[in-house]
Every structure is written in structure tokens, then in C-alpha cells.
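Researcher: Let's do a round of design. I'm pasting the C-alpha cells now; please hold your answer until I've finished.
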């Protein structure tokens, strides 16, 4: 122990301030990085949704497996203070590496805006994530316990208040970062080509991790630091192992049964340790069903974010990006924790209902299960609005007349007449094998036939501008644009090549009477600049797109006005998302209520039921349930390939309901204990024994069955 009199402030140790600020910065760093991780995988590295979801949950699982390592290092080797510092350094380096891995110009040798060596980026980001998982997991069980260590005897009330402040610091950090990093991500940056700014979005969390480390070191002289207690976890494992071996050796009838399976360790270990381990194993047994809750909870960052990308983010006057919806959880936590503590629990108590910790946790599981039922209902609503894309042998064709005459186009079984600058309302479905002839005609000119091999499962646009002049364009867009972005392509009606710059992106060399490929843009109005030798200098350079919403696709036809200047004609290919993101709020609300009564209660329950020297063991056990939850997501998402997303949500909801019932039954049979009283009882007994021994005869060593 270093100090005599600890510094204090409002009855709290001053050192607490540094620990809370450190936790705020660390959580900002972690959640900021995690908020954009899934979009980094899909957009930047280019993995598909399922692989990205799998890697995301593997990473989260790792972050919750490493606390065991952290608890071991702190308990048996470095002590909490040094463990926090050394692992924070590892963590900061990891954040730095992942920021470097997202720099496009690192391997973009020919400066065309695409990566030339993807494995370099993948390798760097995996190394970065591994270091982050080690850092964040390793310090997790240490920081909260180190905070608890700062309080004196008789400061229980302040200590409990500290845990609440600590939980709010976690959520304030995650709230701010999940709002800020997605905003940084959509900025444009880059040396040679402008791109979404991942290096900045990952770099800010890295800087904050460095700040967290510095703040923690500054407080060094004020902390109460305890020596490492020796390898508690090792003792626990050895004792359990010995007990099982010993029970197995004495399995025949002539040995009397013992009350508890751990009593078989009595030959080698003292009663106090055995009773402490009994407390721990009874709680650990209760933990078995808990991972199912986390399996649902952690899908906010993956499946629910992907669900938001098929929705419309305009809520009133503000516009929300899909990855910002996760902030709803943190906002609700900051509001709900005080309300539940100050209003809901006291009301329940007034009604005379004994709302024990385990009952609260059961209610939390039920609420999370209901959240997924709501998510499934929202998904069904979304599915109704999604356009139908060609399946199987089908192709879909739409006609766009970019000429100055009326055109008649006849397909097998139907004929379409289009005026100038107009298109068919819908894509028309045809069976590839029956699409024998397409004829184009207009008054006073001969009929011409379209010759084209159509590939099944695709959409095509037929551009016509004179009876014998047409072009068939393969759209290459067979699903809604991802991340809620909007696909835009241009059709050139000028007589020579043009290039177009839209919002900093270039559509190069669009030949006369043909269409460019789609490029994708976030929501909002965009500036469009047309470059062509045919355009006179006095024309206004900038044209403007309409206000793009979410998940739509448009074709812009560039025409020439009478004065020779370009003008835009807009045609809709895929309608924007119509289901509002605000509809996700009820599922977030239910899940957050579930989290408040489940998560905070679980931490407090683990703390209250653990003997003093095993609090870190149980905290690590609690975090392990989170890791297993993420592993469950991997298994379920991997094993059941659902054609319908709502079916997967319903499956998860049903699984959690079943687990909730099992947990309720287990909870019925649990008896609460007060570890401090048990310890006190042992202290009493030992005093008595010592007194007796000193009176009667010199102490003899304990005689065990193995010696006899």
C-alpha cells in the first residue's frame, strides 16, 4: 500500500475520476471502431453480408473470451494497475494498425481508387483486431474491480453509486462514438482518389485510446494498489479437478456418499476454499442459459444494422444513416437506467412483490425475445415494399425512349407505345426461352427487329431513339443498393462522348446514345457536372440531382436544350425504401429494457454472490456468457441458411423464450447467500479452534484419508 491518506472529493476517492474518464475514452474507442466495422468489411474489403457478420461476431466473441486472460495476469502476476497499463498499450497499437489497414492509398499503386493488393489490408486489419480483442478484453475485468478497490470500509453506498456511474460512462462513450464515427466515415478523403474516410473514422478511436492511457497514468500516485493475490483461478481449477478425480476413485458402494460433489476435495483442500468454490459453481451453473440473451442482444450491430439499410432514414427533419440506428440503444440506456432504478423498482416493491435479481433477469430475457418478434414483424413490412427481381428463367425488360418521335415496341404477347422522353412504368417480366422477337416501329418507317441474347436472372433496359436505332443495356443491378445508398447511371443523347462528375465521382467516356454503369451515392442532393466539347462556354456548368432518399436507383438522361446547354431528365429504376427507420425504435426499446433489467442486475448479482477473493473470477465468468452468445449467432447463422430474414428472427425469439422458461425454473431452486456472513462464520470457527488447541495440546497436522 503506497499512501497513508487518500485524496477525496464529495466523499469519493479522487482517483475514481481518472478511472471513470479512462473507461469513457476506452469505450468510445471500442464502440466507435465497432460501429463501422461491419460496413468496413462489406464496403472496403468487399466481403458479403454473411462472411462479414461471421467475422464481426468472431471478433466480439474474442473480446469477451480474453477477460479470463486479463484476470489471470492481474491476479497472479502483474496486479490490476500494471495489467491495465500494459494491455492498454497493446490496445492502442491495435487501433493504430486497423486505421492504417483502411488507408486506400497504401496499396493503390496505379491510383485508380481500387485496392491492388487486398491481402495486405485483410492481414493488417486481422492483426489489428486481434490486438484490440486482447487489449479490450484483458482490461475489462480489471478496470471495474480496480475502481471498487479504491473505496474504504464503510463506503458501500458510494461504491454501489460508482458502479452506476461506471455503467453510464460506458454508455455515454458508446453513444457519442456511435454518433460521431459514422459521420467521419461518410467524409471524403484520400491522396489520389476521394473515398469514404475509414482512416479518419478508425483514427479518432485510436487517438482516444491513447488519451485513455495517458489519463490513467496521470492518476497513478493517487490509486490504492494491491499486490496480486496469487493464482486464484488456478486454485479453483485444481480443487475442482481433484474433487472429481477423488469422487471417481471412490465410486464403489462401500464409500459413504457425501452431501456435495465438491466435498470430495476435503482430503486435500481446506473447508473455506471448498465453500467459496461451492458459491462460485452454484452461480456458474445459473450462467449456462445466459449466452442466449447475448446472442440476440449483439445482433444490433450486425443483422439489425443491415435491416436498417433497407429502410428510409428520414425522421422528421433529420436524416439518419443505417449504422447510426445503434445509438438508439445507448440513448435509451442513459434515459432508462435512472428511471428503472428510481421509479420502476420502487413501484414494484410498493405492490409487495419481491422482485429478486433472478426474477429481473428472467423478465429481461422475455423482453429481448419480444424485441425479436417485433423485428420480424418490421421485416415482413419491409419485404412487402421490396421490388421483385427476376428469378429462375425470367428476364425483366424496360423500354426507355430517348428520341423525338413516338415509338411502338412489340414483345411476344404485348405492344408498348412510348412518347418522346418516356419509359415503361415497370420492368416487364419474360421467360427467356419465349422471348422470340422484339420489333420496333414508328409511323411512316419500316419495322426493325432487336437481336440480343438475354441472360436469365437479369434486368435489361432497351434504349430506343429511332426505328432502326436502339441499344440493349444490361443493368447489372439485381438487388436493392446496399447500405441504403442510391444507384445512379447516365444516358448520353449527345452525338459525341461525354464525361460526368457527380459529387466527386467520375463517369468516364459515355459514348453517344449509350448508358454508363451504376455508381452508388448516399442520400441528399448531388451536383452534376457535364464535360463535353459540344457544350458552349456560357452554359451553367452545374446541374443538380433530385433529393436522393435511401436504396433507390435512377437513370439520368442528359439531353440538349434548344440553346445547346445540357439538361437532366430523371427516370426511376428502383423505388426508394419506404418503411421508416423509426419503426425500428420499438424493437430497440424492448431490447434496451431487457438489457437494463438483465445486464446491470447480472453484474450486481455476480458481485453480491461471490466471495471476496473470487469477484474477478465471477466477473470473467459473466463476460464469458457474452462470448458464447456471439458464438451461438455464428452457429445459427451458419447452419440455417434462411431464405427469409424474418424466419431467422422468429427462430432466435423462440430459442430465447425456451431458455427463459428453463432459467426461471433453475432460479426457483437457487437460494441467495451473503458471502461476507459465510466468511465471518469461518473466522469465528478458526478463532475457537485456535483457542481450544492452545489450551489442550500442541497442534497436530490434519490427518487425511490418503495418509492412513
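Researcher: That's everything. Go ahead.
Model: Designed sequence:
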Amino acid at each position: 500500500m503506497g499512501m497513508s491518506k487518500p485524496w477525496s472529493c464529495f466523499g469519493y476517492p479522487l482517483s475514481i475520476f481518472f478511472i471513470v474518464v479512462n473507461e469513457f475514452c476506452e469505450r468510445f474507442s471500442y464502440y466507435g471502431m465497432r460501429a463501422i466495422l461491419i460496413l468496413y468489411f462489406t464496403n472496403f474489403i468487399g466481403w458479403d453480408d454473411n462472411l462479414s457478420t461471421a467475422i464481426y461476431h468472431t471478433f466480439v466473441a474474442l473480446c469477451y473470451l480474453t477477460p479470463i486472460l486479463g484476470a489471470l495476469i492481474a491476479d497472479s502476476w502483474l496486479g490490476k494497475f500494471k495489467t491495465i497499463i500494459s494491455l492498454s498499450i497493446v490496445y492502442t497499437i491495435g487501433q493504430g494498425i486497423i486505421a492504417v489497414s483502411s488507408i486506400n492509398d497504401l496499396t493503390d499503386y496505379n491510383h485508380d481508387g481500387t485496392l491492388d493488393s487486398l491481402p495486405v489490408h485483410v492481414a493488417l486489419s486481422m492483426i489489428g483486431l486481434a490486438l484490440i480483442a486482447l487489449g479490450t478484453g484483458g482490461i475489462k475485468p480489471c478496470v471495474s474491480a480496480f475502481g471498487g478497490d479504491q473505496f474504504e470500509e464503510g463506503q458501500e453506498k458510494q461504491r454501489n453509486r460508482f458502479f452506476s456511474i461506471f455503467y453510464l460512462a460506458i454508455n455515454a462513450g458508446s453513444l457519442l462514438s456511435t454518433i460521431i464515427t459514422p459521420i467521419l466515415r461518410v467524409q471524403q478523403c484520400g491522396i489520389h482518389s476521394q473515398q469514404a474516410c475509414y482512416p479518419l473514422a478508425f483514427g479518432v478511436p485510436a487517438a482516444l485510446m491513447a488519451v485513455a492511457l495517458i489519463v490513467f497514468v496521470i492518476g497513478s500516485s493517487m490509486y490504492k494498489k494491491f499486490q496480486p493475490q496469487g493464482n486464484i483461478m488456478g486454485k479453483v481449477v485444481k480443487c475442482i479437478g481433484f474433487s472429481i478425480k477423488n469422487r471417481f476413485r471412490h465410486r464403489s458402494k462401500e464409500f459413504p456418499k457425501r452431501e456435495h460433489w465438491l466435498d470430495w476435495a476435503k482430503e486435500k483442500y481446506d473447508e473455506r476454499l471448498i465453500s467459496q468454490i461451492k458459491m462460485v459453481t452454484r452461480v456458474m451453473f445459473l450462467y449456462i442459459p445466459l449466452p442466449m440473451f447475448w446472442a440476440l442482444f449483439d445482433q444490433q450491430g450486425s443483422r439489425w444494422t443491415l435491416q436498417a439499410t433497407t429502410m428510409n432514414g428520414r425522421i422528421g427533419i433529420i436524416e439518419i444513416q443505417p449504422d447510426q440506428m445503434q445509438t438508439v440503444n445507448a440513448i435509451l440506456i442513459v434515459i432508462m437506467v435512472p428511471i428503472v432504478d428510481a421509479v420502476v423498482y420502487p413501484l414494484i416493491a410498493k405492490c409487495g412483490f419481491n422482485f429478486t435479481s433472478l426474477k429481473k433477469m428472467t423478465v429481461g430475457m422475455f423482453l429481448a425475445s419480444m424485441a425479436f418478434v417485433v423485428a420480424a414483424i418490421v421485416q415482413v413490412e419491409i419485404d412487402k415494399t421490396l421490388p421483385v427481381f427476376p428469378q429462375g428463367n425470367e428476364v425483366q425488360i424496360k423500354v426507355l425512349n430517348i428520341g423525338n418521335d413516338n415509338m411502338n415496341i412489340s414483345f411476344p404477347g404485348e405492344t408498348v407505345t412510348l412518347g418522346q422522353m418516356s419509359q415503361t412504368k415497370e420492368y416487364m417480366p419474360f421467360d427467356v426461352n419465349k422471348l422470340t422477337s422484339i420489333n420496333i416501329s414508328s409511323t411512316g418507317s419500316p419495322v426493325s427487329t432487336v437481336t440480343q441474347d438475354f441472360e436469365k436472372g437479369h434486368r435489361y433496359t432497351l434504349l430506343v431513339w429511332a426505328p432502326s436505332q436502339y441499344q440493349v443495356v444490361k443493368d447489372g443491378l439485381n438487388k436493392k443498393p446496399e447500405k441504403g445508398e442510391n444507384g445512379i447511371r447516365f444516358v448520353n443523347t449527345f452525338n459525341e462522348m461525354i464525361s460526368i462528375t457527380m459529387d466527386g465521382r467520375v463517369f468516364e467516356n459515355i459514348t453517344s446514345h449509350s448508358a454508363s454503369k451504376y455508381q452508388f451515392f448516399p442520400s441528399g442532393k448531388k451536383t452534376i457536372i457535364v464535360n463535353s466539347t459540344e457544350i458552349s462556354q456560357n452554359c451553367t456548368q452545374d446541374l443538380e440531382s433530385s433529393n436522393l432518399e435511401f436504396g433507390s436507383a435512377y437513370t439520368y438522361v442528359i439531353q440538349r436544350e434548344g440553346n445547346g446547354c445540357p439538361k437532366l431528365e430523371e427516370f426511376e429504376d428502383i423505388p426508394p425504401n419506404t418503411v421508416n427507420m423509426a419503426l425500428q425504435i420499438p424493437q430497440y426499446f424492448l431490447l434496451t429494457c431487457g438489457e437494463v433489467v438483465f445486464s446491470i442486475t447480472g453484474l450486481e448479482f455476480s458481485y453480491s454472490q461471490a466471495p471476496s477473493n473470487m469477484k474477478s473470477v465471477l466477473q470473467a465468468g459473466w463476460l464469458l456468457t457474452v462470448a458464447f452468445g456471439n458464438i451461438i449467432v455464428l452457429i445459427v447463422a451458419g447452419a440455417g441458411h434462411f431464405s427469409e430474414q424474418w424466419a431467422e428472427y422468429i427462430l432466435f425469439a423462440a430459442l430465447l423464450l425456451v431458455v427463459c422458461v428453463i432459467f426461471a425454473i433453475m432460479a426457483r431452486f437457487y437460494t441467495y447467500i451473503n458471502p461476507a456472513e459465510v466468511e465471518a462464520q469461518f473466522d469465528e470457527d478458526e478463532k475457537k479452534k485456535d483457542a481450544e488447541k492452545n489450551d489442550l495440546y500442541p497442534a497436530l497436522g490434519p490427518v487425511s484419508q490418503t495418509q492412513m
